[in-house]
Amino acid sequence: MNTPVGIHDLSFATTEFVLPHTELAAHTGADVDKYHIGIGQRSMSIPAADEDIVTMAAAAAAPIVERWGTDRIRTVVLGTETSIDQSKAAGVYVHSLLNLQPSTRVVELKQACYSGTAALQFAMGLAHRDPSQQVLVIASDISRYELDSPGEATQGAAAVAMLVGANPTLIRVEPLSGLHTSDVMEFWRPNYRSTALVAGQESFSAYLQALEGTWKDYTEQGGRALHEFGAFCYHQPFTKMAFKAHRHLFSTAGHDLDEGRMSAMLRLTTAYNEVVGNSYTASVYLALASLLDHAGDLTDRPIAFAGYGSGCVAEFFGGTVVPGYLDHLRTENHRYVIERRRPIDYDTYRALHSRSLPEDGGHHLTPRQTTGEFRFAGLSGHKRLYEHS
Ligand code: CAA
């Protein structure tokens, strides 16, 4: 029998600042229930001037490296939509900040919000090939839309780090995946833009059609029946989308849905995303963190994962919760990273949103704002500078 492979550890980090949707609503004039109930969001993580996808990624992965050491990590795969360089992989900075072994391969993956799932799947292949090796998978993103646009209220930021390897302590990932790709333009970000372009209504239907496509492919290959899954972790651009996706999946499969049971189960997966906002590649694994941290004992329960990245690529797969997993959770630390964020007012948020980095190749230091362990210290000669306190 093949050695089981999957998620051995999971840890997430988010930003220094948080903007409550009450504060946003007070200035946009929207009814706050549109945010709280309509899209299911309560606050959004806002990065300080000296935070970026690298500092969040390092902060997410540091506790994993501290617990398990670096000896077996021979690959780092970082998925992001918020790339900081056209050439250099953000993971190389993370590798340096965490003092990983030089004998490591590091690469960055891109496909909108999907590349966290791609990173996990590629890591699975590497761990199956050589069960003595571990792969550090990181999904790190800052979601940014135009100010005063419909997408604004769904912004957010977070990084999830996962250690993938043989005999995992958390989730055995099953090898069968349902896949779907189609060439659509409902959310994209040309290289010259720092905010995403989006066609809101088209993005709903592209997400739902892609989910349907993955389910069809999954069942055609003899995957599990829907009722076998104890919980469903969806990509959550805003948490209400998980409910829309779940209804669509059940109707596609021709199953009746108990709304009460569905709500109770899905709410276990939305606790972090509803206060963090859209973290793109990280969002489906933030849903998993929320589920593991808030559900009762899930031992041996199969969990469904539905990743989606606009443009679009989607993947549906299952995993089983490993006996003893409760001893390896980081629930307290996850609560801390959410609660330590400092609320900011609307003007501070707008000022942070409007910041851009100078492009003149000079020496520019970023103001010290974060109290976190890692910071983006500035630019010098077009090179990014990072500090580890
Ligand atoms: N009280 C309660 N509910 C209210 C309300 C109120 N006062 N006012 C409005 N609502 C409800 C609406 O009825 C609606 O709910 P339903 O969809 O269930 O009917 C919900 O709040 C949102 O209202 P609108 O549709 O009017 O909102 P909008 O058009 O201003 O913006 C959006 C919604 C299009 C999703 C926008 O947030 C957006 O563009 N988001 C970015 C794109 C996105 O996230 N797409 C999701 C799929 S793509 C993807 O998943 C990739 C990714 O990460 C981006």
CATH topology: Peroxisomal Thiolase, Chain A, domain 1
Form type: globular
CATH level-four homologous superfamily name: Thiolase/Chalcone synthase
Spatial ordering of strands, largest sheet: 5-4-6-7-1-8-13-12-11
CATH class: Alpha Beta
Largest sheet: 9 strands, mixed
CATH architecture: 3-Layer(aba) Sandwich
Give the helix level as a range of percent. 25-40%
Weakly predicted, low-confidence segments: none
Rg computed from alpha carbons, rounded to a whole number of angstroms:
20 Å
List keywords for this structure.
Thiolase-like, 12 helices, transferase, Peroxisomal Thiolase, Chain A, domain 1, 17 strands, 9-stranded mixed sheet, alpha+beta, HMG_CoA_synt_C_dom, globular, binds acetoacetyl-coenzyme A, HMG_CoA_synthase_prok
